[in-house]
Amino acid sequence: MRAQFVLSEIGVGLRRNLTMTFAVVVSVALSLALFGGSLLMSDQVSTMKGYWYDKVNVSIFLCNKSDAESDPNCAKGAVTEDQKSQIKTDLEKMSVVDTVTYESQDEAYKHYKEQFGDSPLASSLTPDQMQESYRIKLEDPEKYQVIATAFDGRDGVQSVQDQKGILDNLFELLNGMNWAARALMALMLAVALMLIVNTVRVSAFSRRRETGIMRLVGASGFYIQAPFIMEAAVAGLIGGTLACGFLVIGRYFIIDHGLALSEKLTLINFIGWDAVLKYLPLILVTSFLMPALAAFFALRKYLKV
Fold it and tell me: In what residue span(s) does the ABC3 transporter permease C-terminal domain sit (predicted)?
């Protein structure tokens, strides 16, 4: 097979169906950009889980005088010094506990003022209305239930809260958004495949006389099909290259510059460039093989060779 002939036929085919080729390029670019974005989102969620789950605490909030009047869990009154001492001793004996930190009412009031000083409620609060608490760092964040079972309902304990539960809600939201992106990607991919099949059909129909002559002179089936397959593959590869560009530009402007989320959201450990670069070859290979295979199977039906 002469490479020059195949290349010339690819050029002719792309120019002849320029509008449909453009539609294929755009649809492939958008679908694979969403595909790459969903992979990066999964990596980002995993990175955030590893970072934040290692820092979450379990908080044991102790009853104060206000709770004794309004909270059924504190019906026996505010926590006593003996109860606080016993809770701390029991915590330190537990193998799942890494460290235990006590926060007094004054410290809790100070932290609240730092975080919510602008709130109208902050001006009406006093230190004696705040709750004392123990902040527990676990060896394994998944072992929260051990602490909850041991201390929930104990005299002097108002509640046991796990910060991991709050993070789980956030990660469920992020995962939901990720699956929505994947669903949109699947839809765009289906559109791209239909466009590829239609483009191949139109191209094969417009050149049916040429392919008929080639068949009469003894050209092999693969020799006849190759230009059509390569047309689809080249259009897909252009779309894949654009998708890679979208991901690189998106990472650059959203995280590093432009929105600069890495500077504005310093508490989030964002994925690095290595996470982006490792998916670019996959996107390029997919953008080449997917249209080529779609064209190959389409030709088996629409081009009798």
Answer: 184-301
